[in-house]
UniProtKB/TrEMBL annotation, chain A:
Protein name: Sugar ABC transporter permease
Biased composition (Low complexity): 1-18
Region (Disordered): 1-22
The UniProt record lists the keyword Cytoplasm: no
Residue span(s) of domain ABC transmembrane type-1: 92-299
Membrane topology: Multi-pass membrane protein
One GO BP: transmembrane transport
Segments passing through the bilayer: 30-54, 95-118, 130-152, 172-194, 226-247, 280-300
Keywords: Cell membrane, Membrane, Transmembrane, Transmembrane helix, Transport
Compartments, record wording: Cell membrane
From TrEMBL, chain B:
Subcellular location: Cell membrane
Protein name (database record): Sugar ABC transporter permease
Family matches, as Gene3D superfamilies: MetI-like (1.10.3720.10)
Family under the similarity heading: Belongs to the binding-protein-dependent transport system permease family.
Organism annotation: Actinoplanes nipponensis
Key words of the record: Cell membrane, Membrane, Transmembrane, Transmembrane helix, Transport
Residues in ABC transmembrane type-1 domain copies: 79-271
Keyword Membrane: yes
Record membrane topology: Multi-pass membrane protein
GO biological process, one term: transmembrane transport
């Protein structure tokens, strides 16, 4: 570790026998390791973001009604349109509502199942672990298609239910999608929490057990605080996933007329770009990416700040 | 004498409650897949009208054959595309992420912290938020509707870099690298001969994460591709499903296709599950 400490002058430890040649060799190695990823990251992450920002500052202008369109600098005119776009903000509200309900339900269930697997109360652990994880192998699009059929009044195995309750109606379709997302991701989140439970040394429980604490007490006071980092991680990923909802609503449009072309923010981006109005769609994208970044970053900082106390 | 008796009763009660919860959840998670399997085995007329969760006449073979022959085997082509997009991108992406994360963990170099923070910021900007910007960029160079327009962006895996850094710190001891140096091994050779081996379980985890992420990415191929011969299987099934009202016979094909499309990943999970267990937690615990 210390040998590679080449740049900090004076801090070079005595073990660094031949600093000069080694320094250059390491620089080459570091470049070899970092440049391939770095180049692709710049090309396909940073440049597109930059390009979207640039595009969002332009607007189309026509000379006369049927004249040729050309792009001119429009300043923040697209952003004004974004902020005054009612359907876009109601779609943001919709996914936030979705997230506030679905994320706690999903992670609560994942945590419960992980704790049960870890408690020693359950036989056949490896079977359950796999059974709960299998839906994660189903891509969002395929899961949405499958559940779309399961909800439909004719095909469903639960026709007694689906004939009386219309899961694809305007009132329920959001929660029908929440169920699809939950179904896919509970097992994945459970596995993350469960592996972090497995990494807790058992001696920590022994003390609590000797003090007469039961399973619930141990789970609540010992295990849950210790797996908090895993729960935070899964929450951040779930927040990101929720704001980016696209596959499920896009598929559900063919099952339910209640899902409009601006149902979620990402659907708005997609339908605006297929009009096509790329400048406005770029502005939507920038706002959405910033909002996602800000929300997950705030959550991370907030939970880290609490953890340090 | 009564205290232990209460304890045992409690434990039977909690055991039963735990098993009931597990059982109910198993039904919830597996019934849709069971339904898909049963549905795939039915002829077109029997999909409706027969018991949805039990077999009628077993027609799986005929259905699969019909699916594979439909429109000159376009479905097989989609499966093959998916394999190329996801397998290729995840393999290359894992290698590049591992190299970068390893360098950040094991070497001090200028800009190291900045690099790591920018990459970490990349974790918080999800792939689908980039789909439209990428489309605009690729259309600038007339690269949309090509294999590379979906493949190349999928290779970049910032979360993999983050995980690789943690794993490299945890599993590659400094002394071993030092010993390799004394033996005259170059840094790059040490990485491929020593470090990759030590990081292998972790690399499988990164690979699996990325594989599933690319496999699931829907928006990028949706905006990029218009030629159906380039579609991944998810986009293909989606396009069939949105034509079902016009072409009703597609419904059966969608169901069989959905079953076939999830089979490879389910099988892969069965074989690779020990890697999920060992590697997945490390990223969260840190």
């Amino acid at each position: 570790m210390t040998v590679t400490e080449t740049r900090t002058a004076g801090a070079a430890p005595p073990t660094a026998g031949r600093p000069r040649p080694r320094r250059s060799r390491h620089t080459k190695a570091v470049l070899f390791f970092v440049v391939p990823f770095g180049a692709l990251f710049v090309l396909f992450y940073l440049v597109p973001i930059g390009y979207a920002i640039v595009q969002s500052l332009y607007k189309l202008e026509r000379t006369g009604t049927f004249g040729p369109a050309r792009e001119v600098f429009g300043g923040l005119v697209q952003y004004e349109r974004v902020f005054s776009d009612g359907p876009f903000w109601s779609s943001v509200g919709r996914v936030l509502l979705f997230g506030v309900v679905q994320v706690p339900v999903m992670l609560g269930l994942a945590l419960l199942l992980a704790l049960l697997l870890d408690s020693g109360l359950v036989r056949g652990r490896s079977f359950f672990r796999l059974a709960f994880f299998v839906p994660y192998a189903v891509p969002g699009v395929v899961a949405a298609i499958m559940w779309g059929y399961l909800y439909s009044p004719n095909l469903s195995p639960f026709t007694a239910l689906t004939r009386n309750v219309d899961f694809l109606s305007a009132d329920l379709v959001l929660w029908a999608m929440a169920n699809v997302v939950t179904w896919v991701y509970v097992g994945y989140n459970m596995l993350i929490i469960y592996s972090s439970l497995l990494s807790i040394p058992t001696e920590i429980y022994e003390a609590a057990r000797i003090d007469g604490a039961g399973q619930f007490r141990i789970a609540w006071s010992v295990k849950i605080p210790l797996v908090m980092p895993a729960i935070v991680l899964t929450t951040v990923f779930s927040i990101i996933g929720t704001l980016q909802l696209i596959a499920e609503p896009q598929v559900f449009r063919s099952f339910s007329s209640a899902v409009s072309s601006t149902y979620t923010p990402n659907l708005t981006v997609y339908s605006t770009s297929s009009i096509p109005n790329f400048n406005l769609a770029a502005a939507f994208s920038v706002v959405l990416a910033l909002a996602t970044f800000a929300l997950s970053f705030t959550f991370l900082k907030f939970t880290q700040g609490r953890g340090e106390r | 004498m009564s205290a232990p008796a209460i304890k045992v009763r409690e434990s039977i009660l909690s055991r039963t409650a735990a098993m009931i919860i597990m059982g109910v959840c198993t039904v919830y998670f597996l019934v849709p897949i069971w339904w898909l399997f049963v549905g795939s085995s039915k002829s077109r007329e029997q999909i409706t009208g027969t018991n949805p969760i039990w077999f009628a006449d077993f027609n799986l073979g005929a259905n699969v054959r019909e699916l594979l022959e439909y429109r000159d085997g376009v479905f097989l082509r989609w499966m093959f595309n998916s394999l190329l997009y996801t397998g290729g991108a995840a393999l290359l992406g894992t290698l590049l992420a591992a190299m970068c994360g390893y360098a950040i963990a094991k070497y001090r170099f200028p800009g190291r912290e900045t690099l790591f923070n920018v990459v970490l910021g990349g974790v918080l900007v999800p792939a689908s938020a980039l789909a439209l910007p990428l489309f605009l960029l690729f259309s600038k160079v007339e690269g949309t509707n090509t294999f590379w327009s979906v493949f190349l962006p999928s290779v970049v895996n910032p979360f993999g870099v983050y995980l690789a850094r943690i794993y490299a710190t945890a599993s590659v001891p400094e002394e071993l690298l030092e010993a390799a140096r004394l033996d005259g091994s170059g840094e790059v050779r040490s990485f491929f001969t020593v470090s990759v081996r030590l990081m292998f379980p972790a690399l499988v985890t990164i690979f699996l994460f990325q594989f599933v992420a690319v496999w699931n990415n829907f928006l990028l191929p949706l905006v990029m591709l218009s030629d159906e011969r380039l579609f991944p299987v998810t986009l293909g099934l989606y396009s069939w499903n949105s034509q079902v009202t016009g072409i009703p016979e597609l419904r059966g094909l969608v169901i069989v296709g959905a079953l076939l499309s999830i089979t490879p990943l389910v099988v892969a999970f069965l074989f690779l599950q020990r890697y999920w267990r060992s590697g997945i937690g490390a990223g969260a615990v840190k």
